[in-house]
UniProtKB/TrEMBL annotation:
Source organism: Arthrobacter bambusae
Family: Belongs to the EamA transporter family.
Superkingdom of the organism of origin: Bacteria
UniProt xrefs under InterPro entries: EamA_dom (IPR000620), EmrE-like (IPR037185)
Any Pfam family hit: EamA
Transmembrane segments: 14-35, 42-64, 70-89
Keywords: Membrane, Transmembrane, Transmembrane helix
One annotated Gene Ontology cellular component of this protein: membrane
Protein name: Threonine/homoserine efflux transporter RhtA
Amino acid sequence: MVNAPPAVLFTPELALHALIVSILTLLAPFALELFAMKRLRALVFALVAALDPALASTVGAVALHQSLDFRQMAGIAILTICAGVAVFAESSTSQKKVSVQ
């Protein structure tokens, strides 16, 4: 038989706190992304959004001592490289357009 969790974990006050934390963890990043989207160029915002998994995995590795397998690290590396190439290609394209005019 499985041991039941203590009844202390199911208090209404704790449930309210958990609800508040869950709402804030969803709304705060979303609101910040919308705020940044209005103020950044599309390419810069796309680069920042593409680097989110790399930042999250770094925080997970350092703060939470989590590890990624090879496939996950390769996926993050590919995403980061593609974002960098896109920014480099866009910046060189925009420089050519300026010099032509």
